[in-house]
Amino acid sequence: RYHTTFRPAPTPEIQARLRQNPRDMEENIETSVEGYNGNPKELEDFYEDAFHVNADQDPHVVFEFIESSIIKPLPCKK
User: Fold this and answer.
1) What does 12-46 look like in DSSP terms, one character per residue?
2) Dihedral pair phi/psi, residue 3, rounded to 5°
3) Angle at 34 between CA 32 and CA 38, to 5 degrees
4) CA 30 – CA 38 distance, rounded (Å)
5) Region annotation Disordered: residue ranges (predicted)?
6) Based on the number of CB atoms within 10 Å of its own CB, is 65 exposed (0-12), middle (13-18) or buried (19 or more)?
7) DSSP at 3
8) Distance separating alpha carbons of residues 38 and 32, to the nearest angstrom
9) Do residues 2 and 18 lie in contact, with contact meaning Cβ atoms separated by under 8 Å?
10) Are 44 and 51 in contact (CB under 8 A)?
């Protein structure tokens, strides 16, 4: 398997034989993203137990947050 940016075909002959999966065409991706972004309320209703994760943090912090959201933590004394 080759990737045009990260793992290009080694020779022009091989590159000429390559085909792109129709599901990966830009129009199809745009349709999928529009469908996803157009239905946030339906998704929230369907996944009512879901929680928001801020993944713009250290991976350990993200893991700890997900773990604590899945496994109910013990109550702490204040």
Assistant:
1) HHHHHH----GGGSHHHHHHHHHHHHT-HHHHHHH
2) -130, 135
3) 120
4) 12
5) 1-24
6) middle
7) B
8) 10
9) yes
10) no
Q: How is residue 62 written in tokens?
A: 């993200």
Check if the beta carbon of residue 15 is closer than 8 Å to that of residue 9: yes
CA diameter of the chain: 69
Helices (H) and strands (E) in the chain, counts: 4, 0
Q: What global pTM score does this model have?
A: 0.43
For residues 7 and 1, the answer to whether their CB atoms sit within 8 Å is yes
13-63: pLDDT as tens digits: 999 999 888 888 899 999 989 988 888 888 888 888 788 889 999 999 999
Residue with tokens 């990260």: 6
